[in-house]
Amino acid sequence: MLDTLLNFLTGGVVGLGWWGMALVLLVFTQLTIFAVTLYLHRSQAHRGVDFHPAIAHFFRFWTWLTTSMITKEWVAIHRKHHAKVETDEDPHSPVTKGIGMVFWRGVELYREARAMRADIEQYGRGAPDDWIERKLYTPHANLGPVALLAINSLLFGLPGVALWAIQMAWIPFWAAGVINGLGHWWGYRNFESADTSTNLTPWAFWVGGEELHNNHHAFPSSARFSMRRWEFDIGWAVIRGLQAVRLAKVLRVAPSMDVRPNIAVPDAETLKALLSHRFQAMTDYQRNVFVPALREEAAMAGAKLRKLLPRRMRRGLVNDGRWLKPDCRAQLSTWVEQRPRIRVLVEHRARLAALLEARGNDAAERLKLLQAWCHEAEASGIAALQAYAARLKGYALTAH
């Protein structure tokens, strides 16, 4: 009898052993990540993909079982993050709340955001509101993890309790901490989006593609997060697999862009591509205009670029210094004013950004403004700016 009890406590009714438990941990945590990134994030929050009802309900059930998160609340908090990004109203911005707070206490921030019921109603529209949501998933959200603890204990014994603890910590650490925190604090950027989002690494199989956070902020409604040849989005691979067996329907992906040669004047195709890829346009400006100009300034001054202008100040050139402290912003402004050529580049960038981000202008008026901008850029006498304007005129979306 005692031996039977000990065997149950050490292995449950399954008795997998440590390698078996490691495999179960991998499968369970990946299912949880996929439920969050594919269902909550890409499907419910951004409507980039639809899943077969059976798949969608499995993801919803698994989210309830392993995280206790309510779909409507998660969707609302995430949509608010995009709508209020890097402001005091952003539920989890390291810029306003500090990286330590978001990384280590992201769950607390999530709970605070949940309590703002008016925001949940405003941003959570369209989330599931069927019988099982009203009777089980929402009113008894905490019952899911309790049921999971019982299931794990029965199947795997005491190791199942350890498995449960890891499952409970998985999303709070990797999603609330790493993605929400480090994803706005450290990494590389493909796009000069109007926030501090970064890509943490070109691939990270255990977080479902969420590591490509800057790509996502540049194209929020895209079901595919990878944008470069060397990037791999495992979540997109799963979507494509489900699509192949008709269990998923991709609704939106980021449009591809090409550059047409020998375009004399920006046309409607140029404007359409720029509006779709405005962050790419700003990235191209930074890489092809600012960087060469700064290197020339450094060469003329006989100094290394990092000595001429520290990296954080160079970043300020491409985002109007919005993330710099006031004293650094004033220092950067003075530095720019002392260099007429750099001042021209800063002014042209600001005008282009305003043109692309403006709301309310009709297409014809905006096209005239773009044509005038290109004409003035080509007349600036600054080679890098002239080359950029010539290339920009050829922007066009690639037909799929």
What is the general shape? Answer: elongated
SSE ordering: HHEHHHHHHHHHHEEHHHHHHHHE
Overall residue-averaged pLDDT value: 94
Strand content: under 5%
Tally of individual helices? 20
Stretches with pLDDT under 50, minimum 5 residues: none
Which strand order spans the largest sheet, edge to edge or round the barrel? 1-2
Spatial extent as radius of gyration = 25 Å
Structural class: mainly alpha
Description of the molecule:
- The chain has 400 residues and is mainly α.
- The chain folds into 2 domains: 1-250, no CATH class; 258-398, no CATH class.
- The protein is built from 20 helices and 4 strands.
- It has a two-stranded antiparallel sheet with strand order 1-2. Strands 3-4 form a two-stranded antiparallel sheet.
- α2 packs parallel to α10 (158-182).
- The protein is elongated, with a radius of gyration of 25 Å.
- The model has no long low-confidence stretch (mean pLDDT 94).
Lay out the secondary structure.
Layout: H1 2-11, H2 17-45, E1 49-51, H3 53-67, H4 71-83, H5 94-97, H6 99-114, H7 117-123, H8 131-137, H9 143-156, H10 158-182, H11 213-218, H12 234-244, E2 248-250, E3 257-259, H13 268-276, H14 278-301, H15 305-308, H16 311-318, H17 326-337, H18 340-357, H19 363-378, H20 383-392, E4 395-397
Antiparallel strand pairs: 1-2, 3-4
